[in-house]
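We give the entry.
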Amino acid sequence: MPKAAAGTPKAIANKAKSKGLQRLRWYCQMCEKQCRDENGFKCHTMSESHLRQMRVYAENPTQVMEKFSSEFEENYLETLSRLHGTKRVPANQVYQELICNKTHIHMNATKWDALTTFIKYLGKKGLCLVDETEKGWFVQWIDREYLKRREEIEKARKEEVEEEVRLQRLMAARAAAAAAATGGERKAEEEEEGKRELRRGEEEGRIVIGAGRLGGGGEGGGRGGGGIKRPRPVAATGNVFGGQEEEEEGWRMSMKKKMVVGGNGVGEGGGGKKSELEKLMEQDTARKAAEAAARKKREEVEEEMGDGGMEEGRTENWLMEGIVVKIVNKKIGGGKYYKQKGRVEKLLEGGFVGEICLTGEEGGREGGRGGGGVRLRIDQEELETVIPAVGGRVLILNGKGKGREGEMVGLDVENYACAVRVRGEREMVLKGVQYEDVCKVDRDWLRGGGGR
């Protein structure tokens, strides 16, 4: 009987009958052809195309069956991972979702005679976690890529810790070596100074030390100068005491002259110049005062910042309630929630897992601010922080100022850092805060009592 022409009532009826799944017993996997009744299937088995495909199968049946089996296994695992992720679901439910595709590989064309045999094969090969209950067989997909990524992260963390310990030991050894070298040099200098002797030259006479008197009220209000005067050598035939009196008289006359003229001393007019020693002492005093003021200010800032002001206060978990994060794992929900933003409303497993309420297109239609949207429990490794524009409100997640709320005042795109203004008893700006240590915060949700 000839084929009905397109558009005729017969062709439309045949097309309507061919929609959906048909009888499995009338399906030919080798030709990928579905027949509607027994007579049509019989005619197909006697056709030339079917006989040609059967000759191909007869040449190497094992290879053809292995091909169909590998395709069926791949399609089953893909359906399980895309629709259910790593959740534990009934095996038959996944099979029913698989056969909804009209062009799927039928199980009667594979090397497994039943679904139970296939599930046992998946468990034995380590592709899935399988278990049998009163309700039947259950299957759970194992995400090998996620486990491998977690192992790489742990390995990198261990390497960082080992490198840090190695650097600390190296720095400690260098410091000890430097201290030992410095101590040896100081000891050598002390020994050398101890060996020195104080000797006076043959041509040097006695040293006379004279100190000036404080001036009286009428002639000058300043102080007289003091000095060290080395006397002239006295001849052997002269009077020793007479020479000394002459030197003292000459020194007194010179001091009076200086006071009147106003040289190194102080004249009648007012204050004189400061000596070099006094200038050095004033500079040293000013420097110590500046250092004390800076130290006091730094202590006040650290006291105001609290424990969050210390770099040692960093923790591995950075999730906090009220922050807005972004999903970066393409496999969550079969890629449906990739790059979607959500608000962290609850922390689980010690703060490493958060309950996320989506606020994007997928979750914002239903819940939005009310918190009734799609909710997911996701590990922090599958999330990343959201950086607002300049002027937006943020929450510091790690490092200096952890747990403090602030305002974004600047972005350093090249170094992946930003500047945050934090207000407390005094206002301060934290510069160089990395992107992973700061995140956008939903203030309206926190003010509404969502963070309690």
Notes: The CA atoms of residues 365 and 373 lie 7 Å apart.
